[in-house]
Specification:
By secondary structure, the protein is an alpha+beta fold. The chain has two helices and three strands.
């Protein structure tokens, strides 16, 4: 999945960028207080996308068919 599309999904789920330093960006879910690192690769593996969403307690993005 493209990183930009995933970041748009995180914003749509009301998550916000907490820190943006080093090789990862840290995104936070204000509803739960959970935080998770998002790598700065152009492409992020769908399994990693699902893991990040699970850790943030949000729904993963729908797969494009």
């Amino acid at each position: 999945m493209k990183r930009r599309a995933f970041l748009r999904h995180l914003q749509a789920e009301e998550c916000f960028l907490d820190r943006d330093d080093g090789p990862h960006s840290v995104w936070k879910n204000p509803k739960t207080g959970d935080a998770e690192a998002v790598p700065r690769h152009n492409e992020i593996n769908i399994f990693l996308v699902r893991k990040i969403c699970r850790e943030l307690r949000i729904l993963p993005p729908r797969d494009k068919a």
